[in-house]
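Re: that backbone. Tokens:
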């Protein structure tokens, strides 16, 4: 394990990496949003405690989120004149609820976060990392090229209408996944 003052990184034997942001005095607001958003591997946010401001942004940029019963989420920075990042939140919970949280600066607890689809599960603090690793192992059961395709598609379809997203997804799946597999199966390049 590599230790830094603000970031801890660990790679498990099975290839699963764990990145811990450890800056409670700064509410974990580290400016790595673009790198998180464009990261090629699936990311799971395991939230134990407050996920506010920049920490909330990072959680919404992850592919999946789970939390403990004591977790809270919100964008209080609107109250201090700082504009919050709202696009990922809107994609996850919808426009109306995103507007509510962003414009009011209201924080929500774990139960409401689960009810509105912000998190996919609530687990006890002592099981949080165990559950995150279990989910990661399930994700790793898929073929890497399929995971890359799905992650790219999920990340890029938010601004398109249904028909355009569906057509693009279908065409890319055929061209990038199914056709190469068929060619490989037939012994062609």
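Recovered sequence:
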């Amino acid at each position: 394990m590599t230790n830094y003052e603000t970031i801890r990184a660990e790679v498990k034997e099975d290839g699963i990496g764990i990145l811990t942001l450890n800056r409670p005095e700064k509410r974990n607001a580290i400016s790595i949003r673009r790198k998180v958003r464009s990261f090629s591997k699936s990311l799971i946010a395991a939230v134990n405690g407050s996920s506010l401001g920049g920490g909330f942004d990072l959680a919404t940029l992850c592919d999946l989120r789970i939390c403990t019963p004591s977790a809270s989420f919100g964008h209080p920075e609107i109250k201090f004149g700082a504009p919050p990042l709202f696009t990922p939140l809107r994609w996850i919970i919808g426009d109306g609820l995103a507007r509510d949280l962003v414009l009011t600066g209201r924080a929500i607890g774990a139960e409401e976060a689960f009810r509105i689809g912000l998190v996919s599960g609530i687990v006890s603090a002592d099981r949080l990392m165990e559950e995150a690793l279990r989910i990661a192992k399930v994700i790793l059961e898929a073929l890497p090229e399929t995971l890359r395709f799905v992650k790219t598609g999920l990340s890029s379809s938010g601004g398109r209408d249904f028909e355009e997203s569906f057509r693009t997804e279908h065409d890319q799946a055929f061209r990038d996944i199914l056709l190469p597999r068929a060619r490989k199966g037939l012994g062609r390049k």
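The chain has a mean pLDDT of 81. The first strand starts at residue 2 and ends at 3.
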